[in-house]
Every structure is written in C-alpha cells, then in structure tokens.
Amino acid sequence: MAAQRPERPLSDRRHLMITGGSRGIGAAVCRLAARDGWNVSLTYRSDATAAAGVVADVQRAGARALSMRADVSDEAALASAFARSVAVLGPLEGLVINAGMLGPSGTLLDLTAERIRRTVDVNVTGAILTARDGARSMALSKGGTGGTMVVVSSTAARIGSPNEFVDYAASKGAMDTLTLGLSKELAAEGIRVNAVRPGLIETAIHADAGVPDRVARLSSVVPMGRGGTAEEVAETILWLLSPAASYVTGAIVDVAGGR
Ligand code: NAP
C-alpha cells in the first residue's frame, strides 16, 4: 500500500523549485507561484540580472525566493542547487522541469553533432537529472513529504518541427515519454508528475534561435489565431501543481491555442 502524505497546516508556504526561472515561461511560473502561496527557488544558466529581477518580484509578493546559477546539464552544479535550495527554503514539494534551449533554426542537413549533443544534454539529460534530484528530495521512501512535478515539453513533440528544429522536437518527444514513466514510477512515492506542451509562446527563445518574428509569422496556423503568453502556460502549470489537480498524474496538457 502506498504511504500517506502527512497533513501540513494550510498557512505554511510550500517550496517550489523551477529550473530556468529567470526568463520566459519559468519567470511567469515564479511570479504566479508567489501569488499561489509558494516560496520559490529558481535556477538559471547565465542571466544573473534577470534572475535577480524575478527574485525581487517574488519577494514583493510576500514570498521567500532565491536564485542559483546552475546549468542543468552539469550534474554537480544541479545537485548543489538542490542542496542549497532545500537548506534555505526547506523541504521541496513542487518542481517545474522547465529549462530548455532551441538551437538556430534550420534543416536536418545543417545539423552538427556538437549542436545535437548540446540540445540532448540540456533538454533531455538535464531534465532527467532534475527529476532525479527532485525525487530524491520529495520521495516518501527518502523521508520526503511527496509532492508534484511538471515537465515542460512542447507541441514540437507531436508536430516534429520539420525544416526548423527536428533535434529539439525529438528532445521534447523524450519529455512526453519521461512524464509517462515518472508518473507511474513515482506515484507510490507520493509524487504526481504531469507535463504541459506549450505551442507558440511569446518569449525570447525564438530570437535566441535566430527567428525573432517566429510567433507572429506562424500565428495564422494556430486555430485561435495568435501566439500565447508565458502567463497562459504558467497558469496551467500552477493548476497541475495545486491540490485542485490531486488525482491528475501522467497527463500531458496542450497549451497551444488548438494547434
Ligand atoms: P527562454 O525565455 O529562452 O528562457 C529559458 C530559461 O531557461 C532561462 O531562464 C534560461 O536561463 C534557462 N536556461 C536555458 N538553458 C539552460 C541551461 N542549460 N541550464 C539552466 N537553465 C537554462 O525560454 P522559454 O520560451 O521560456 O522556454 C521555457 C521552456 O518552455 C523550454 O523548455 C522550452 O523548450 C519550452 N517551450 C517554449 C515554447 C515557446 O514558444 N516559447 C514552446 C514550447 C516549449 P538564462 O536566462 O540564464 O539563459
């Protein structure tokens, strides 16, 4: 029989960690999490100024926050970030596996081994390491209190992103499979695991991939006729993390305007 989750006073702010929380979807999750009663730890890769801005916003909303520089593909750096966040904010109860990257847009014929390895290192290896470290902290069998994880996949996982980023799409396909496996493996540990698949969302990831106008250019292929906002994705993530989704695990939720 699965162990029961201990009761906690409602007044306690719980600890949510978000990888890649300094910008875009991750930053929106941090801000909404403060609204919804979480304390927030976030990781980032390089943009310390953006991370500090998110920390200040979360603190202004009345929550505790800290940021840690850690590339998710660096196992030791990631483990240090988990250890520090738990030492400062207490036991982890929520985790958003969000950090991800998109290489320059192009066809299969343009891809190099170096670029493919980096995409897989960050988007796949980094996500699995993040899930592992989170589970080590939350699992009932390890003395944790259980919790919830949300994996940030992409509609690319089911569209395939031909002529744009097939390596990225393949890495996001792995996120869907990871979500299914983790939800089954971790259920008895008191951990729910779900995923969101954002569609075309207005963040800097497109400009970083060399296509700043991508969302505007492709919005006509979205049934709702527009790109989405980081906040629209974050609201779905916050719902999956909340007790309102207490019987939801292994779900992959499209936040994509019908695309
Ligand atoms: P973004 O605006 O580019 O933000 C990416 C965040 O991840 C930043 O905080 C960045 O930190 C961090 N990051 C990047 N590489 C990292 C690494 N190796 N280690 C640790 N942190 C790293 O991207 P976004 O659009 O919000 O995307 C967030 C997630 O949503 C990604 O997994 C992406 O694949 C997914 N997604 C996005 C869209 C979309 O249209 N925007 C659609 C579907 C899925 P720094 O600021 O320090 O670099």
Summarize the structure.
This protein is of the alpha/beta class. It is built from 9 helices and 7 strands; from the N terminus they run E-H-E-H-E-H-E-H-E-H-H-E-H-H-H-E.
Which helices and strands occur, and which strands form pairs?
Layout: E1 14-18, H1 24-35, E2 38-44, H2 48-60, E3 65-69, H3 75-89, E4 92-97, H4 113-138, E5 147-152, H5 156-159, H6 166-186, E6 191-198, H7 205-208, H8 214-218, H9 230-241, E7 252-255
Bound molecules: NADP nicotinamide-adenine-dinucleotide phosphate.
Description:
This protein has 259 residues and is of the alpha/beta class. It is built from nine helices and seven strands, in the order βαβαβαβαβααβαααβ. Strands 3-2-1-4-5-6-7 form a seven-stranded parallel sheet, with helices on both faces. α4 links the parallel β4 and β5. α1 packs parallel to α2, α1 crosses α9 and α3 packs parallel to α4. The longest helix has 26 residues. The chain is globular. NADP nicotinamide-adenine-dinucleotide phosphate binds next to α1, β2 and α7.
Order of SSEs, N→C? EHEHEHEHEHHEHHHE
Helix content: 40-55%
Give the end-to-end Cα distance, rounded to a whole number of Å.
Answer: 41 Å
Structural class: alpha/beta
Q: How many beta-strand elements?
A: 7
> Based on CA inertia axes, which overall geometry fits?
globular
Summary tags:
259 residues; alpha/beta; 7-stranded parallel sheet; 9 helices; 7 strands; 43% helix; 16% strand; globular; disordered N terminus; binds NADP nicotinamide-adenine-dinucleotide phosphate
